[in-house]
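seq as requested:
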Amino acid sequence: MFWRSKDIIENNPVKRALLKSMGFTNHDLQRPLIGIANSWNNLVPGHFNLRQIAEAVSGGIRQAGGTPLEFGFIAACDGLATGDYTMHYILPTRDLIAHDIEMMVQAHCLDAIVLLGSCDKIVPGILMAAARIDIPAIIVPGGNMEGGAEFDGRPSDITSIGEAIGMLLAGRISREEFDSLEDKVAPGCGSCSFLGTANSMCCVAEAMGMTLPGAGTAPAVSAERFRLAQESGRAIMGLVEKGITARQIMNKSSMENAIKVSMAIGASTNIPLHMLAIAYEAEVDMTIDDFETPSRLVPHIAKINPAGPATVGDFHKAGGVQAVMKELGTLLDLNAMTVNGKRLGENISSAETINSDIIKSLKEPFNKEGGLAVLRGNLAPETGICKPAAIHESMRTFRGKANVFNSEEEVTEAIGQGRITEGDVIVIRYEGPKGGPGMREMAKVSKFLYGLGLALKTALVTDGRFSGTNNGCFVCHVSPEAADGGPIAVVENGDFITIDIPKRSLTLEVPEEEIKNRLARWKKPKQKYGSGYLSIYSRTVESAGLGAIIRHRFE
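struct tokens:
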């Protein structure tokens, strides 16, 4: 049994007295102490139900002979922060979450940890914490939100409002139609109903074996979600009994499985950013190149909003992650260990595809290549990420004149003033991990363009990020970023840029000598934040091509 608290608690009357002050008994303290790291709050919809989820987990732990000890940690909402300065603070929370959980677990010598979270940076953060601490661990997502009322031919979601703003500006909908949306797009709590980063990372956690089967996609308001939570409480005790720690599950093999599943479902462009950070914490040798082979090898077999009309709840009913892995079959390592103590192959043996309109077979995929692609070229020497699964086939090659902006605010103003025209390649720079700082998502920009009818007539290139709901033609995570003196820093208005997704290239059509001359004249801008955590973050964070990690191992 993995039981490290026993010696410390059993022979330390001070620690026992402190725990007894809260009502714990000798019986409680003779059992393994199981932490429940809970990101509950009533500010973030994806975490609103985690108070009840934690109670179900606690019940399962007690049933299986453990003592649950719950603590909280921060959880910020991308949706509430999208589109203005508040988004600077979102990606940096990922590493704070990992640090926070590490401090609580190690300071109190807990024997195992159940990690509750649902949203964009929270799931990566808790996976990073599990990998770093390397004790028995299991992830319990809170579940996804139901789709809203139909809008523009599909179930609406939070991003529909961004699209509607552009449609309102273009006169395509009335003010009354627009005003009614905010009561219809989010009918209940949960992580947003589309396959953005939140639900993509929940699917990745399941594919990696860090959740119970089905836990990545079961809806927030379903009875199944609560049954899975209680079962997870029992499962963590199984891991303790068998001495199975996080890194025995989170290894190179399981991470490669997760990458392949992300390709198959057309997951968020943020997956490489977070997978590289998780690999760093697990001390797994992984680079951005590990995404290229799966991108070519694994077909896109599941279509979920924004690639299609299906919500994540619909995907769950169609068979979910387990059915996708069953379809992928021997493309995966079926011997990989999972948190229920079974091998992956055993878990998926009974999985089945219920709806072939949402989940296809390998023989008849939606696309022969994966949903994510890594681009390189003289504009992105290290990397650029795009999502072919959400890009119309006619837009997978695009050549146009650069229309350059140094912040999200600048381009948003230009859109409102009608300064974006058909054929533009909109370049948004100084939005990377260091330059932003915090690598903001440019989701608002893409949604405005969609609403204006320009999504299939323009392209976006940025050293910032995009939401998993983007469509049109877009490339993000361009590295080196502008603040590091990458070539994106010296693109000028009128330069031609070619995006060629089939050839995996991103090219600035300017002679190399001219690029060198421009870079020689370039001056590093002053940091935007001179104090506070964002100042610390911008000085310590690494490139997006390395996962925007903050190094804490020094060889």
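The chain has a mean pLDDT of 95.
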